[in-house]
Amino acid sequence: MAVERTLSIIKPDAVAKNVIGQIYTRFESNGLKIVASRMKWLSQHEAEAFYAVHKERPFFKDLVKYMISGPVQIQVLEGENAIMKNRELMGATDPAKAEKGTIRAEFGKSIEANAVHGSDSPETAATEIAFFFPRMDIYSR
Ligand code: ADP
Ligand code: MG
User: Fold this and answer.
1) pLDDT means per 10 residues in the chain (141 residues)?
2) Distances from the Cα of 77 to the Cα of 39, 52, 87, 115, 116, angstroms
3) pLDDT score for 120
4) Which of 50, 77, 96, 121 could bond 32 through an S-S bridge, CB–CB 3.0 to 4.6 Å?
């Protein structure tokens, strides 16, 4: 296994629920270090660009609207197998189908408002991290 970095976003519904700390604890207690972090209210243009891979999907417009409905908390997580580890901690896209104890099962509201985003491959992790963080703002330790 290799040390990897992945991009995580705590989405507007979870930020509004005041559970940033509880979600950060999940990362930290499962071997993922927060090596960069910022809160940001995305513009429509930014949300559309971030989710560009989904632009042909029927839910794209609503997804963008939801992602700009309030501030999000964005972080880079680093650790062994970080990309898949984070996806495991998140659970399935639909909170109703996510395994008990996962972040989405516990904090997600719906298939759209599902509390967190996580990169799904080394390629998307690299692209998504670069989208939000210049290299100089990422602090490995
Ligand atoms: P994941 O976030 O688990 O990688 P996807 O990349 O497939 O899932 O979708 C991106 C985001 O789009 C999801 O996290 C969710 O917020 C939203 N989404 C996915 N599928 C649907 C759907 N069928 N209806 C509404 N929103 C959806
Ligand atoms: Mg995805």
Assistant:
1) 96 98 98 98 98 98 98 98 98 98 98 98 98 97 89
2) 15, 22, 12, 16, 13
3) 98
4) 77
Neighbours of ion ligand 2 (CB under 5 A): 120
User: What is the strand order of the sheet 3-10 is part of?
Assistant: 33-40, 72-80, 3-10, 116-118
pLDDT (tens digit per residue) in 19-59: 999 999 999 999 999 999 999 999 999 999 999 999 999 99
Give CA–CA dist 49/51, Å, rounded. Answer: 5
Which atom number of ligand 1 is nearest to the Cα of residue 120? Answer: 4
Coil, helix or strand at residue 43: coil
Three-class SS string for 47-76? HHHHCHHHCCCCCHHHHHHHHCCCCEEEEE
pLDDT of 1 reads 78
Question: Residue 10, SS3?
Answer: strand
Distance CA(20)–CA(71), nearest Å, equals: 12
- Active-site residue (options: 117, 118, 119, 128): 117
